[in-house]
Design brief:
single chain; 228 residues; alpha+beta; seven-stranded antiparallel sheet; two-stranded antiparallel sheet; 4 helices; 21% helix; disordered C terminus
């Protein structure tokens, strides 16, 4: 699986490298010793979530300085031997609460995919991509607060020994939000993960998971998926 490496921000004051690594702490989820029951339940729901088969998800090393407790997943939308999009989702938890989050949990994400240059040049693309995130959450009836994030378009042009490569464009969505806490102070993390996977699928250009749902618009076929 292609790891979504990069700098993750909690969108409310705080940032860490969150580099990809082997999931040696796959079942730890916490880095300060005792694991709060609410966080343990939220992590277990993430592990038990059932997702569409085109999306491969695995645990990875969580960032260490964003919150007292953190658990991270990375995912790739896979078609054969090619990755159409990839991303990382981090669950943060501070039992004492976080003033900027307005809650004790926070979800932080990074999603990336390659685009045709013509599509990347569309001035409305950032707004559309942000609406995919909020729409994915709303479609599943999820309540959340304090959303924040960025949508970035980048282009690469190759020269010299790399001049044979075609120009490439990439879209990158970085976002964070506070999930509503339910019974026992535990948010529905499985539903939030499913919504995040819906976003990944849209960015990758996959058709909607639900047959006949014409309200979801996906990216058109792009130049070529990333090699795994």
């Amino acid at each position: 699986m292609a790891a979504a490496q990069g700098r993750l921000s909690d969108g409310a004051g705080g940032m860490d490298d969150a580099k990809g690594a082997e999931a040696e702490a796959r079942h730890k989820g916490s880095h300060n010793g005792s694991t709060p029951p609410a966080f343990a339940a939220a992590v277990e729901a993430l592990r038990a979530a059932r997702l569409r088969p085109q999306i491969e998800v695995e645990a990875t090393r969580a960032p260490q300085r964003l919150a007292p407790h953190a658990y991270a997943l990375e995912a790739a939308v896979v078609d054969g031997d090619e990755d159409l999009a990839d991303g990382r989702l981090v669950l943060l938890h501070d039992p004492a609460g976080h003033e900027a989050w307005h809650g004790t949990f926070r979800l932080v994400t990074l999603v990336r995919a390659e685009l045709e240059p013509e599509m990347a040049a569309d001035p409305l693309l950032p707004d559309v991509c942000w609406s995919w995130l909020t729409g994915a959450l709303q479609t599943r009836g999820l309540t959340y607060g304090e959303p924040s994030g960025t949508v970035t378009r980048a282009s690469s042009h190759y020269f010299g020994g790399l001049s044979a490569r075609p120009s490439a464009s990439q879209i990158e969505i970085r976002a964070s939000w506070t999930p509503r806490e339910g019974l026992g102070g535990v948010p529905d993390t499985a539903a939030h993960l499913s919504s995040w996977c819906d976003l990944l699928a849209q960015v990758a250009g996959l058709p909607p998971a639900a047959p006949g749902d014409a309200s979801i618009v996906t990216l058109p076929q792009r130049r070529g998926p990333q090699s795994r």
